[in-house]
Task: inverse folding
């Protein structure tokens, strides 16, 4: 059974930091691209940061502030968020994706709320 469980969200003041974690199980973690998405009220879901086996990718809005990492021993993917802004307020989702010659595998967590407010 595939599971992705996010944690670490909460309320933080502007300029503060949070660390999100996504614990995964039920699939071959090392083969997948792991991505953090977010969705703010009234807006479409957007990519925040992704990490493959050798490379990372960030949305322009978070470059220099957020860092994505993956722990192969624990099968987790983390998102360190520094210098948070009110515009970062959203539900953050963890995603695992793999495309093979035969099929796509696309798994999602339930999301964790991040609220940046004074």
Result:
């Amino acid at each position: 059974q595939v599971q992705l469980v996010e944690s670490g969200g909460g309320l933080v003041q502007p300029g503060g930091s949070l660390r999100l974690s996504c614990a995964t199980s039920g699939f071959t973690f090392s083969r997948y691209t792991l991505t953090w998405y977010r969705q703010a009220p009234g807006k479409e879901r957007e990519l925040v940061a992704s990490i493959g086996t050798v490379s990372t990718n960030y949305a322009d809005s978070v470059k220099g502030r957020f860092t994505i990492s993956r722990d192969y021993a624990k099968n987790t993917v983390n998102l360190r968020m520094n210098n948070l802004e009110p515009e970062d307020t959203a539900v953050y989702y963890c995603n695992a994706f793999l495309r093979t010659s035969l099929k796509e595998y696309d798994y999602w967590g339930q999301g964790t709320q991040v609220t940046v407010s004074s």
About this structure: The two ends are 40 Å apart (CA to CA). The mean pLDDT is 97. Residues 84 and 91 are 14 Å apart (CA to CA).
